[in-house]
Design goal:
single chain; alpha/beta; Rossmann fold; 27% strand; globular; binds zinc ion; methyltransferase; transferase; SAM-dependent_MTases_sf
């Protein structure tokens, strides 16, 4: 299931890759953000995402869909053997998802500790959305809710989602798009430059993912896709 996030090579039982990068397992969390990574500028630019992903919930409550009904919908689509949730936070999506191998990845250990306490069957992974520590073509479903728009280059994360998905595997992506007043406020607050619907449609297609459904909810957009 896991692979080296730096070079993609296999890991042995002690979580060391073929080229000698070492990772660890501590307090129930697989840690793929090691010393090398901490020095990485890329990661630092990604770090604020996860701390703030909970903040927009209020906006969901004011949109047509409640957050719970959105999670319920995504969870039922994601339900399959191997499920990966990128930017899982405390792993709430797994309350709505049936999976045998349930992998919750986040960049914040703080959230992962809570996840481990609340949802012990979820495999907690400390990792980066732009270099997933996951083998290619090994996952049935991937979700990423309120994460990818925070990245400087959302394309990289979408490419990674496609890479780890099995053929015909499903994905669900929820992002902030540049659409209206609330979007402008959030973008200013987060200091991001959100992309529009066209960007996501083109990027998702570029990486061999077929859009099965999309839905705009105020400043948010949900994409349900399948790997071709
Ligand atoms: Zn390596």
């Amino acid at each position: 299931m896991f692979a080296c996030p730096i070079d993609g090579s296999s890991l042995d039982d002690s979580l060391t890759c073929e080229k000698g990068h070492k990772f660890s397992y501590n307090n129930g969390i697989y840690d793929f953000i090691n010393q090398d990574y901490k020095a990485d500028k890329l990661l630092e630019s990604v770090a604020p995402i996860y701390e703030q992903i909970w903040a927009p919930f209020g906006f969901f409550l004011t949109s047509a869909l409640s957050y719970n009904s959105l999670l319920k919908k995504i969870g039922s689509i994601m339900s399959s053997e191997v499920v990966l949730d990128i930017g899982t936070g405390t792993g709430r999506l797994f309350d709505f998802t049936n999976c045998k191998t349930c992998i919750g990845m986040d960049i914040s250990n703080k959230f992962l500790y809570i996840l481990k306490q609340k949802r012990s069957k979820v495999i907690a992974v400390h990792g980066n959305a732009e270099t997933l520590p996951i083998k290619s073509a090994s996952v049935d479903s991937v979700s990423s809710i309120l994460v990818i728009h925070m990245l400087k280059n959302p394309q990289v994360a979408i490419k990674e989602i496609s890479r780890v998905l099995k053929n015909r595997g499903k994905c669900a992506i929820v992002v902030l798009i540049s659409n209206g007043f609330i979007s402008r406020i959030l973008s200013k607050w987060w200091k991001i430059n959100p992309k529009d619907d066209n960007y996501y449609v083109a990027t998702i297609k570029e990486f061999s993912l077929k859009i099965k459904e999309k839905q705009i909810m105020g400043p948010w957009e949900l994409f349900i896709c399948e790997k071709n």
